[in-house]
Design brief:
The protein is α+β, with helices and mostly antiparallel strands. The protein is built from four helices and six strands, in the order H-E-E-E-E-H-E-E-H-H. The protein has two domains: 103 residues, Topoisomerase I, Chain A, domain 4, CATH 1.10.132.20; 68 residues, Gyrase A, domain 2. Helices cover 58% and strands 16% of the residues. A hairpin with a 2-residue loop joins strand 3 and strand 4. It starts with a helix and ends with a helix.
Length: 186
């Protein structure tokens, strides 16, 4: 392993951390409806638990309503029950084969709770990035110890990894601020 590989690996891992954080943010509910909300809801289908998207068509009817159209007739009640029992606080209503999932408006208290959740998730993402920085710096120190690189090269590598870390954390902070603004917008 050389310095270029250390930096490249650190950058790739940090980017994956940011992507994972973005995915985490999509699960946090705002006032608007989006189909990704039901991704973590699983329903029993022939003895195994599967995501709703594998047994039904999930679409948006309007900005505040998700529609779930089961592919099989008997699945409607199971899907409705799974959504109701999830921790999302949603109350689905069946209309024939179609299940409508209206998004309740967020209270001020719930909005504040959600901003805390977003900040906590952001801090976890920052910690993950800092851990990646530490790993990269340890690899550079190991190369120095094995006399494969000079002290100047090791110092330069640490500086580059620090700049990369700063950029990635700034990106995470931007995502946190945007999500908080989205949650607090009435």
């Amino acid at each position: 392993m050389n310095i270029a590989e250390i930096k490249k690996t650190a950058e790739q891992k940090m980017q994956k951390s940011v992507e994972a954080f973005k995915h985490e943010l999509t699960k946090i509910r705002t006032g608007r409806a989006h189909t990704g909300l039901l991704d973590q809801v699983h329903v029993e289908y022939y003895g195994s638990m599967v995501p709703i998207s594998q047994v039904a068509n999930v679409t948006l009817l309007d900005a505040r309503t998700i529609s779930v159209q089961p592919w099989e007739k008997g699945m409607g009640a199971k899907i409705e029950k799974a959504i109701r029992e999830s921790d999302l606080g949603l109350n689905p209503a069946a209309q024939g084969d179609l299940i409508r999932v209206p998004m309740p408006p967020l209270t001020e208290e719930r909005r504040k709770e959600l901003t805390k959740v977003v900040r906590h998730a952001g801090e976890e993402a920052r910690v993950a990035v800092r851990n990646l920085r530490r790993e990269a710096n340890e690899q550079a120190k190991k190369l120095l110890k094995e006399k494969l690189i000079s002290e100047d090269d090791e110092r330069r590598c640490q500086d580059d990894v620090q700049k990369l870390t700063d950029r990635t954390i700034a990106e995470i902070d931007k995502l946190v601020a945007a999500k908080e603004a989205e949650i607090l917008a009435v």
